[in-house]
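Archive maintenance. Older records in this collection stored only the sequence; we are now back-filling the structure field for every entry so that each record is complete. The fields below show one back-filled record exactly as it appears after the update. Entries are processed alphabetically, and CRISPR-associated endoribonuclease is next in the queue.

ARCHIVE ENTRY
Title: CRISPR-associated endoribonuclease
Organism field: Pseudobacter ginsenosidimutans
Length field: 260
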Amino acid sequence: MRFLITLTCQQTDLVIPINYQYPLSAVLYHIIARGDKDYASFLHQKGYGKGFKLFTFSQISCPFKIEGDRLKLLSQDLNFQVAFHLPQAMEPFVKGLFQCERIDIADKKSRTSFTVKSIESLPDPLQSVKELEIANIQVKPISPIVAGLQNEKGNYDFLSPDDARFKESLLYNWRNKIATCFDTQTASQALLMIDIILMKQPPKSRLMAIKADTREETKIRGWINFNLRVIAEKRFVKLLLNTGMGIYNSMGCGCIVKLD
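Back-filled structure field:
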């Protein structure tokens, strides 16, 4: 399921970190954690067994100016999409978690407090595809897709879309998600296809910092400005749309949308 969340702020000087993904991810985790007790009760009553661990969110949409390592927002409202891999019946419950919440996007240098102005359910892009049918769709990233191979030190060597290993890394990650949500046999037997579709303008990279300006700072590189074709059974494509493509999805990377 997917939502469009609109935030608003009454401050006049709106400034957030250029690396806002980690602070925003932390807030989303906090909101979800506060609903854990009610959520566990809901799962028990409805017979569901999946948690909130698999989610992703898009880049923010708001006019801004870059000032050093800050984004100066030029509007009091901003919005972003967030997707969860949860049963559709949980939609009212998830909406309730976010309504009237305060969301602080902050680091050591600045803090801006927003309230949730609205949360809108977005339509299921695979509604016309029957269960067990093969979905064949084009998607585009609305947050940078991060693909990487772990090196001898256990760190990632990040790959670009023109590297043949980029697609293989995405497929590997997708298969791991299927193993997590279904089982290893289903994952190993699933027929999955990804094709990279380059545009007239080359893909653009973005270097992002997680836990910026701390000892735990980690820098990751993701890519946007290209499309992809994904082909697989509906349930597997739905998983990809709900959880993101590549790695660092819960940090706001790899959020994708279906193209019309």
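Update note: The longest strand covers residues 111-121. Confidence is low (pLDDT under 50) at residues 46-51.
Entry marked complete.
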